[in-house]
Input
Amino acid sequence: MIRFLVGRIVLLAIGLLVASMIIFAVLRILPGDVAQVVAGTQSSPAQVAAIRHQLGLDQPAFAQYGAWIGGVLHGNLGRSLVTQSPVAPQIAQKLAVTLPLAGMSLLFALLIGLPLGVAAAVLRRRAGGVVISVLAQVVAGVPIVWAGLLLVAVFAVSLHLLPTQGFPIDGWAEPGLAVRSLLLPALTIGAVEGAVILRFTRSATLSVMDADHIRTAAATGLSRTGALVRHGLPHVALTVLAVLGVQIAGLLVGAVIVEQVFSLPGIGRMLVTDVGRRDLTKVQSELLVLTGLVIVVGFAVDVAHRLLDPRLREARA
Output
């Protein structure tokens, strides 16, 4: 197991390094001049050149990358090219909104996808199972923006149950208001991602229901449902766990979109603003943090899957 962990940690570090190189290179391809943005439209070429030198934008690309990644390795995500303020505290402040949003979205997705996926498999030959499967296909294909607008129309405009936009000024100092403001955005992401999890859960449950050990358990006196619950659902959970590593990326992408729809002050909304301002240092650090979260979650899921699945341990042995 230790050898497995060391190997995965090495792959994690390589993945983050490669991701940082790609992020840095892609952002340098974007059109526009940061020095011109900072200097203003009425500035002279000499003023623009002075600002470019001050910000280090006249240095070779490899030198700029080395300075940035060296700072990251020491916990310094750099300073905004536009405001000259430290980037790390701003990202930490925005993550205090985005991470709870992603966590609540994941909770909703599991609450929707797991029980309905099992029900769709058990009731596959009945009307209820067909309806659940069809609804899952439809919801999984709905753009998150449309899903958000629909939920706003139902829960905010029609029922007046939840706020449509914003986040408390004092943030988590008012936890009740903070959670309430995240419920509708989280439900928006959770409904779409939950439909995807539902489909995987249904497929995994159907495979388990036809397995030999379920038939054997049923032959010993257990009901079909009892055999599925006792001996089948742990295998279904392992399949869903493997899928979650991919779905987490979808949750974070959904958070970037939903934060725009619901005016939430998260890292996604800040990222969109900074891209428009061509604040390269800030954007590349934000993208690296988001990419790092996805890679770390994938690492955690991989390790958890290895620990919980005896077949993988036996194969390794």
Notes: DSSP finds 13 helices and no strands in the chain. The radius of gyration is 24 Å. The chain has a mean pLDDT of 83.
